[in-house]
Design goal:
Two copies of one chain form a homodimer.
Chain A lengths: L3 E7 L12 E7 L8 E9 L3 H5 L19 E9 L9 E5 L5 E4 L5 E3 L15 H13 L7 E5 L4 H12 L3 E6 L2 H9 L5 E4 L5 H8 L4 E6 L3 H7 L3 E9 L20 H4 L3 E4 L9 H13 L7 E5 L4 H10 L5 E5 L3
Parallel strand pairs in A: 8-9, 8-11, 9-10, 11-12, 12-13, 14-15
Antiparallel strand pairs in A: 1-2, 3-4, 3-6, 3-15, 4-5, 5-7
Helix pairs in contact in A: 2-3
């Protein structure tokens, strides 16, 4: 065990794309657990587009991270000292660890995870908030049904790659939008998508017409901006758009681009709906069981993109915005 | 009866606001009814924001009006000759009359209306498509419920003024957005709105905060543009936005303004949904009965703004975009 605790803190509110000077990397003493607390070492940290929103000083579904505070992050940690009878040394937990090597907690937000059931990284991806976001967004918000055409943007990302696979399991036709030929090939070869559109080299409007000749019943949007705008006029009657994210807009220094084609919602009698996965917490258990069953049956192939070293957090985070990851982006902090 | 039939035809596709030269006023012979047809004289023509969309050469929920075709319009007409046993001379009908004095029809789209039950103009307003749009948009699409806060834009317009009253009947708190002090006063004095905001003189964002301190459960939008954008961040959790129209954008010569605050849908877990009233045709009968009951009970106070003279159609239509009407705008063509 290290004698110091390396932390990545938010030093300044980024304007646009986060820069190195927006972060400070601090060495502090490893904290001591108090009564009813445990000390844990962080093993894996989940990197998510939502993190960019937490860095802005605006009201949202969660408080922003304060200046000079440890950056918020979900992660997997191992208990190394415990004064809490509910957590034993050697237990693994999922909780909001923050971007740091060690933390103490009373365990109120910690959920135990079992490395014998699934590799630890899966609890950040397919069996974690990523998987839950895909599951409830697709099946509850967008109400995808057998025989329908589902389009997902950010299809090679953590959430998008699971959305597409769940849609296939449910008997939908699935078209993914991703950046680059390689990602598109992987969507078809490894994740069984029916079609993939490379928005960097193809005309998205034409490609959607080609791959969705009857129109689009469900659009699961992680990207926003021009992608959302191009999809809108191709929605089928009574279509559903689940708004999960808008990664194309998160580093904007100018105003967010609103979907100027939103009146297509009227023409197609469609709806566009936002959601936050935490609202489904009561149903996570059942959903995780179903997801684990699909994994065991070989129907759900989850992808992780793992980088190493806590000090690399500022650079690795940018991969999300640069399209540098295929599948769930995870930072490994310890073995 | 006149010997000629005056028609208002679309001469050119308007760019932005329709100009006099976009119309031609023609005198043609009064048509003769063929077998199984009737000849009818038009009494009232309904003027609606949707007409602006019909003039554009774009795919929508209905075909555009062709160049040199009689402008499409719904209206009330009286049968003056009939070779159709289902329609007698003296019967009144609602149908797509077009902007003209006379027309022949086989009656396929004509619905008889009874001036003894309600004045004829009511069949274009509260008991017509206007009323049906308000009824199904508010109660079916937006699912307004007792105790909720409902905001309606274009509140002094034909649809908006009915939306607000139905919401009051259903036990909602109702806030109207309209242009001008006089309209706002009428909303409160005559239509029993709880509050009215004059978007021309007030700061809409602040006024909404004041009048909707708990946020907005339902927004019924006739206006679009900056109004929609300002409302979005004030939606309550699980709010519903019914997209009925976007009159602020219909005469745009530049691109439609998309709602840049659409990601607020995520923060508030809200949805935005478009609809077309014709989809509810099967339920019109029951809804009209309920509306007639509210009128009879003095709970639903419908307003008509009636102008005269078919040759004035091009000018009168512009009142919709200039905010020149309070209530349903109707052109009287004949006594």
């Amino acid at each position: 065990m290290s004698e110091t605790n390396t932390q990545v803190r938010l030093a300044a509110r980024p304007v646009g794309r986060p820069k190195p000077e927006d972060w400070s990397i601090e060495q502090v003493a490893v904290p001591q657990p108090g009564a009813n607390e445990f000390l844990a070492k962080v093993i894996y940290i989940s990197l998510d587009p939502a993190m960019r929103g937490w860095m802005n000083d605006v009201k949202s579904y969660i408080e922003p991270v304060g200046i000079n505070e440890v950056m918020r992050a979900g992660g997997i940690a191992e208990i190394i000292e415990s004064n809490n009878p509910e957590f034993a040394v050697g237990d693994h937990v999922y909780c909001m660890t923050g971007v740091q090597q060690y933390f103490v907690s009373d365990g109120a937000d910690a959920q135990k995870v079992d490395p014998n059931i699934a590799p630890l990284v899966k609890y950040l991806g397919v069996l974690g908030m990523t998987g839950m976001t895909a599951y409830f967004g697709l099946l509850d918000v967008a109400e995808a049904k057998e025989g329908e055409t589902v389009v997902v943007s950010g299809a090679a990302g953590a959430v998008g790659s699971i959305v597409g696979q769940i849609a296939k399991i449910k008997g939908c036709r699935v078209v993914g939008i991703a950046g680059g030929e390689k990602k598109c090939q992987l969507l078809i070869d490894e994740l069984d998508f029916d079609a993939a559109i490379d928005y960097k080299s193809e005309d998205l409007r034409k490609a959607l017409r080609q791959h969705c000749p009857k129109g689009i019943d469900v659009f699961f949007d992680n990207v926003g901006g021009e992608t959302l705008n191009t999809v809108l006029p191709q929605m089928r009657r009574h279509g559903r758009i689940a708004i999960c994210g808008a990664i194309s807009q998160y580093n904007n220094t100018e105003a967010v681009q609103g979907p100027s084609n939103y009146m297509s919602l009227l023409v197609s009698r469609s709806r566009m709906e936002g959601f936050v996965v935490f609202d489904y917490a009561q149903q996570f258990g059942a959903a995780m069981q179903e997801m684990a069953g699909w994994m065991a049956a070989g129907q759900l192939n989850s992808k992780e993109h793992i980088e190493k070293g806590i000090e690399n957090f500022p650079d690795v985070l940018l991969k999300l915005f640069d399209g540098g990851n295929f599948g769930k982006l995870i930072l490994q902090v310890d073995e």
